[in-house]
């Protein structure tokens, strides 16, 4: 079997590393990797390939940052040529980025079956580009690998019942595999002079927050009111918007801005945070997997299970609501294993290779 894997963003590098590890010892499977270059910054891309020991991409498109339409169109054009040349048995895509959309569209137009890892997620907010990407991808896919039971239910509501599998979450594979390695190799707490459970970790990158000056301003003003250190790795997009909206003056104590972390540092600093505040779907999950309280700076989330069991709370961007949730958050006394057993990659391969 010939698998064409299409990746382009930080979370996809982490997820694909686990499937690549599972593929390597299997003699009759060949994986060809395309890196679209959607995340093109050294801290968001190359460092992950090196650290996770990912195979070097067979193709690098270098699309970089641009409008949704231009970025997706450039990927689509180049992926079409690659797919025609490689002639894969399946095109494998992850998550909900423009890379995901372009990979699935290119494959569908050329009648190549699509496998979608992390299928069935829904926020039902179509102002999010990610929501459009995942809905379109799910409706084009032949294999839909769902991380949770609620993802399967979402697909069923849309009439998608064939080729649907609950496999668990491949990100959980990565957390279990790399967690101890990360703790051994990372010195990020010492570098930033941090004590365990004595700081907040904050990430903001969603367009609904970064492109709206009032929402962005409200978040930053809230962070200024916190009593403990606020560690804020700045996504390139977020940094650009803060400068554009003249909000740089709000990046003052207790906020400490840093460059984006590599995966080992991110795992370490997340695991030892007092609390995570984020608009990232991936970090909501990782916080849950590492049993760290999370407040989500959005009005909805696709990871509803994390809300159900109390490890995650929705706050939006209202200052009073965020501060109230921080001050009243009770760490749950239950921790259900909602993301599977950590063997998702193996299960996906087994399903894909069934005759």
Can you walk through the features of this model?
45% of the residues lie in helices and 15% in strands. α7 (170-185) packs across α12. It has helices at 10-23, 46-51, 68-86, 98-109, 129-140, 149-157, 170-185, 188-191, 207-210, 213-224, 236-244, 263-271, 281-289, 304-308, 319-328, 344-352; strands spanning 2-7, 30-35, 59-60, 90-94, 114-117, 143-146, 164-166, 199-203, 229-233, 255-258, 275-278, 294-296, 312-314. The mean pLDDT is 94. The protein has 2 domains: 2-169 and 340-353, Rossmann fold; 177-328, Glycogen Phosphorylase B (Rossmann fold, 3-Layer(aba) Sandwich), CATH 3.40.50. With 355 residues, the protein is an alpha/beta fold. The protein contains 16 helices and 13 strands. The strands form 2 sheets. It has a 7-stranded parallel sheet with strand order 3-2-1-4-5-6-7, sandwiched between helices. A 6-stranded parallel sheet has the order 10-9-8-11-12-13, with helices on both faces. The longest helix has 19 residues, at 68-86. β2, α2 (46-51) and β3 form a beta-alpha-beta unit.
